[in-house]
Amino acid sequence: MFIVNPISGHHDKRKFRECVARELDGDAFSYDIIFTEYAGHATELSSEAVGRFDIVAAVGGDGTLNEVARCIVGTDTTLAVIPYGSGNGLARCLHIPLNTEKALRLLRNGRVQQIDTGSVNGRFFLSVAGIGLDAQTAYDFSRDSRRGFLTYAHYVTTNYLHYKPETVNITFDGGKTLTCSPLLITFANSNQFGYNAVIAPHASLQDGLLDTCIISRPSPLDIPFMVTMLMHGQLDKSSHLTEFQSSHITVERPSDGVVNIDGEPVIMEAQLDIQITPQNLRILAP
User: Fold this and answer.
1) Of 1.25.40.10, 3.90.76.10, 3.40.50.10330, 3.90.930.60, which CATH number belongs to 2-109?
2) pTM over 0.90
3) Which of the 8 DSSP states describes residue 167?
4) Disulfide engineering: 249 pairs with which of 51, 71, 202, 274, CB 3.0-4.6 Å?
């Protein structure tokens, strides 16, 4: 089953049916293509597809993947990714082609892998979750009808200038604690936000660990260097990044607030419980 988000990213999806028909051999595959009609529809369709289809293909961005995958975890159904979003973070991490035809060919020649998934207060995520500047940026980006990198970069810049960091208490498994007032904290299962912005160069989808990336506020003069390191997967060389690997993290914030869940803003309680579940999702990759 192809579950298509018609409004994700800035791609025209009207010809998607024709593209699938060209790439898939009718004798080898039977399939349905359904376009979502409202928020949460992808989750409903995915739930109905489990047990009926061998593969459920999410056609959209990281938010669409999240909606589809949350019903597939722990089952024998395999997730396929057809990147049609703006950032496409998980697809880039897994080296899934952004070209639609090439991504569809993975249905014939891809390999099934088992990957980890995360959760924040029981809310499922595939790639990254976070608080601070990235969460506020996800919130602002979601309220803008414009998509794409330039819109996202605009809100990153605006929030850098105006965002006031909160003081938070973090506890990692093993008992290590930390109190800090960072610009942002990212809990990374995959290595990036999207757009090849690699926040966690050492993150792995298959190691049973989350990489907690704590970014302190850089000076304006440091920003060009940090952006260069971010886009080249070298942020671990920055003195503004502190990293921890663990399977369970708790965070205490001053109050309820927004959390970035795979690029989607979600309002959550002040206390956050973040966990990893090892290798509980089947996914097609090169």
Assistant:
1) 3.40.50.10330
2) yes
3) P
4) 274
